Structures are given as structure tokens and as C-alpha cells.
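Hello Y.,

Per our agreement to keep a running log of every chain we model this quarter, I'm adding this entry. I've kept the format consistent with earlier entries: sequence first, then predicted structure.
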Amino acid sequence: MAGRIFTTLLSVILLFTVCPAAGFSQEAQHAQGGADRLAVLWTSGDADVAHRVAFMYTHNAKKVGWFDEVTLIVWGPSQRILVGDKELQAKVKAMQEDGVIVEACIACAMEYGVVDQLKALGITVRGMGVPLTNYLKSDWKVLVF
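Predicted structure for the entry above:
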């Protein structure tokens, strides 16, 4: 598991080292005609992936201005760990306060019995098949953890 996290982090570091316009300059991104909207699909049931990779990048993508719009989609096993982990909940709240939109798949939430808990966290719980398809077919960048 640690090897997979290290490999993911190394890939992100290399991306910004080899291609600095890929994330550090919002102006450069707009000048190149690139999309400035990011959807992060968080499906992993591994809290370590959330704490050390997915949430770190998602939050900074909005807070630092790498993307104008950032949406975190909580889907599948990630829902179960989110409702049981106060530290992850605090990180989601901080992301929301900084402008990250957080949504969750209603079908998965119903299967896990966590609809009310997700809504209590201020997360929009709705069908996500069509919105995700729209993200994929448009100019949104989609990142999966």
C-alpha cells in the first residue's frame, strides 16, 4: 500500500517538475486554453489514500488556484470511511469552506446506509452517473483516487 501511495505522489511531483504549466500558474493554464475545472472521484476505502493523496491534492487544487472549480465526488467505499472518520470529516469541511463542492452518489449511500450522515456533513447526495458522465464528456479534468 505504501508503495502505491509513494508512486502516486511521485507521479504528481514529476508532473509539476517536468511540466510546470500543468498546475502552478492559473494564468498560464488559461492562456493555453486549458480547462480550469476539476472533478475528483474518490472511491478508495483506504483512509491513507484520502489523508495523504486525494484530499491533499483536491484541497490545494482549489485553495492554491490550480483550478477555478473543484468538485469532490464521494463514491462507494469512500463513503463508509468518511462517516466513521472525524479527521476526514474535518478535512472535508475545510475543503467546503474553501470552495470545494462535495457530492456523493445516492445509490452507494443507500447501500451503505449513510445517506443521513453524508447530508449532515453538508454533502449533496444525489444520483452521480449522469453528472460524472457529463464531466467526462466535457472540458472537466477528472482524477480518480
